[in-house]
Design brief:
Number of domains of chain A: 2
Number of helices of chain A: 12
Distance between the termini of chain A: 51 Å
Number of helices of chain B: 15
CATH architecture of chain B: Orthogonal Bundle
CATH class of the largest domain in chain A: Mainly Alpha
Number of domains of chain B: 1
Largest interface: A-B, 94 and 98 residues
Radius of gyration of chain A: 25 Å
Strand content of chain A: under 5%
Radius of gyration of chain B: 26 Å
Helix content of chain A: 55-70%
Order of helices and strands of chain B: HHEEHHHHHHHHHHHHH
CATH superfamily of the largest domain in chain A: MetI-like
Largest sheet of chain A: none
CATH class of chain B: Mainly Alpha
Oligomer: heterodimer
Structural class of chain B: mainly alpha
Number of strands of chain B: 2
Largest sheet of chain B: 2 strands, antiparallel
Chain lengths: 291, 310
């Protein structure tokens, strides 16, 4: 009896120290989080700062007289370019939607085969995908350019869309998530005479919502920020990030406009991430690389 | 017939079986085809192509001319800027790679100890920078005049008397770039680790408590880390990619080329020869070196982690 009380006391003490620990962790994260948020906060206040407040010394951390002039200026500068502003918006949205949809469809099917059908050559492909996780992004940009020049894709929508469609990371995440689907489920469907294509879309995919959301987020982020500076030179094909950089790159006086552009570009990915965060964490749980 | 041969299939039979299996999985191959085709053209071909391309002189206009090893010998023997860029890349990778990895891990762990609602908020806060292209804010913070936030803060505190040129002074600019790179480095790797912590079976901690595990540190070392091997590996790959291929940050922040090439990484060097001078053969050789370095780094880490886990 005495012993039980003692352990109860002990665990009470442990709970107490855990709570204290949690408070310390919270404060630590709060301070670090404020540091992380500071540049974003700075961009936000710069975007609503009137020009005459830019040169107050010492620099202020708040705005005295907030204004939306910078956003208006941004839209005005952009609509005074060669093509109407709506064209850039269309380009960005079009490219983003194409990349995201194509990637989700193609990568899901490929992931399904790699995860669940033991086809000859599948193991090799799996290894290639894992290794190529290293070689995405800008390292292969130059070589991609040469390939696209050969295929006459430069200065077309293809140059903006295709390189981002086959992301090994998205395929990998989807494959990891799908490999948790029990084999018995697929075997049963096979016995019923369903084709692999039907099994993939009618049976496996409906249960892969978290992985799909994750893929959408990563694809969206990548596609939304496609610069395409060297890939397209026709003004009518340029995307938002390119022209917003152009609009804001004219010295200190354009600082407000540049900030407004940055805020404008930042909002969609953050909103999408907020909506889908829970799904992302669920998917990333399967992200591990096993040998 | 040799009795040991009974029941074994001959080579020809085996080949026929394989062919049969390939034919049976025609539908599967068809399903993979769209992705694999695009993947082949835009990832595999570029990576593989940079090997032969590195032995040529190619300017995008004329046909590539074979020049043997001369690109590589020039790189290592005559190109002093390249040799310096290796040093810069290594310094950069050593600071940003391991540091951001530890940061990802630490933050993911600490966040996981909190209340679910706080978890969501903090994950968003720490992940947000990797979605943001807000270099303007950093230019303001590191601005070289007294309007710069950092200069103004340090001067108010009396630590410096005249403003420091953070982004143009050769002594500070690499430091500034490293800070910004660390700031944006909590990306996919961070999310993977966050998920790894989230998914550990709670009952394992209860079992651990019975076995005599007393505090968070012991939980971390004896239960959490051993069951997170795969996530740790994924995050490591992501951090390698991030720290070796970062080029945009430096270029936007300290300009191109940076003062005395102090922030000139291998990536920037490849950009210089590829996009500015159109010497694609030379740029391919530079990329090839970067590929090999990254692959070696990846192998090393998987060895180290492999030892750690089992």
């Amino acid at each position: 009896m005495a012993r039980t009380i003692e352990t109860a006391k002990g665990s009470n003490k442990a709970v107490g120290s855990r709570l204290a620990g949690n408070i310390v962790i919270f404060l630590f994260l709060l301070i670090l989080g404020l540091f992380m948020l500071f540049p974003i906060y700075l961009t936000l206040i710069m975007s609503v700062k009137p020009v005459h407040e830019l040169f107050i010394f010492p620099p202020k951390l708040y705005v005295i007289d907030p204004t939306l002039d910078n956003f208006r200026d941004m839209f005005e500068t952009l609509s005074e370019m060669w093509v109407p502003f709506s064209r850039y918006v269309f380009n960005s949205v079009f490219v983003t939607v194409c990349v995201t949809v194509a990637q989700c469809v193609f990568a899901s099917m490929a992931a399904f085969v790699l995860a669940k059908c033991k086809v000859p050559g599948g193991t090799v492909l799996n290894k290639v995908i894992v290794t190529s996780l290293l070689y995405q992004s800008n390292v292969i940009y130059i070589m991609q350019y040469i390939v696209m020049a050969r295929l006459h894709m430069i200065n077309t929508y293809w140059a903006l869309i295709l390189p981002s469609v086959a992301s090994p990371m998205c395929l990998f995440l989807m494959r990891q998530s799908m490999s948790t689907v029990p084999d018995a489920m697929i075997e049963a469907a096979k016995v019923d005479g369903a084709s692999m294509f039907t099994i993939c879309w009618k049976i496996v995919m409906p249960n892969q919502k978290p992985a799909l959301m994750t893929m959408i987020i990563f694809a969206f982020q990548a596609a939304w920020n496609i610069q395409g500076g060297t890939l397209v030179y026709n003004e009518a094909l340029k995307t938002l990030p390119t022209v917003i950089t152009q609009a804001g790159s004219a010295g200190l006086a354009r600082l407000g406009v540049a900030s407004a552009g940055a805020v404008f570009m930042l909002v969609p990915p953050i909103v999408i991430f907020m909506i889908a965060q829970k799904n992302v964490i669920e998917t990333m749980a399967h992200s591990g690389i096993k040998d | 017939m040799d009795p040991t041969e009974i029941g074994k299939r001959s080579k020809a039979e085996e080949r026929r079986m394989l062919w049969l299996r390939i034919k049976q999985s025609k539908e599967c191959y068809l399903m993979m085809a769209p992705f694999m085709l695009i993947f082949l053209v835009f990832t595999i071909v570029p990576v593989v192509m940079s090997l032969p391309m590195g032995f040529t002189d190619f300017d995008m206009v004329q046909i590539p001319r074979f020049v043997g090893l001369s690109n590589y010998t020039t790189l290592f023997l005559n190109d002093t800027i390249f040799v310096q860029s290796i040093r810069v890349t290594l310094v950069f990778a050593i600071f940003t790679g391991p540091l951001s990895y530890v940061l990802c891990f630490l933050l993911a762990w600490l966040i996981n100890e909190l209340h679910p609602r706080l978890k969501t908020i903090f994950t968003l806060i720490f992940y947000a920078p990797s979605m943001a292209n807000v270099y303007i804010a950093w230019q303001l913070i590191f601005s070289g005049d007294t309007y710069g936030y950092l200069n103004s803060l340090l001067m108010n505190l009396g630590l410096i008397t005249s403003p420091i040129q953070w982004l143009t002074d050769g002594r500070y600019l690499l430091g500034a770039v490293i800070v910004v790179q660390l700031w944006i480095s909590l990306g996919a790797g961070f999310l993977a680790l966050r998920a790894g912590f989230q998914n550990i079976d709670r009952s394992m901690y209860e079992a651990g408590a019975i076995e005599g595990i007393k505090n968070r540190w012991q939980e971390l070392i004896y239960i959490t880390i051993p069951s997170m091997g795969p996530q740790l590996m994924f995050a490591a790959v992501m951090q390698i990619v991030g720290s070796f291929t970062a080029g945009t940050v430096a270029q936007t922040l300290v300009g191109f080329p940076s003062t005395d090439y102090k922030a000139h990484t291998i990536m920037t060097h490849a950009y210089d020869y590829g996009w500015v001078r159109y010497e694609m053969g030379y740029a391919s050789a530079i990329c090839m070196i970067l590929f090999v370095v990254m692959l070696l780094c990846n192998k090393l880490i998987s060895k180290v982690l492999g030892k750690f886990m089992d």
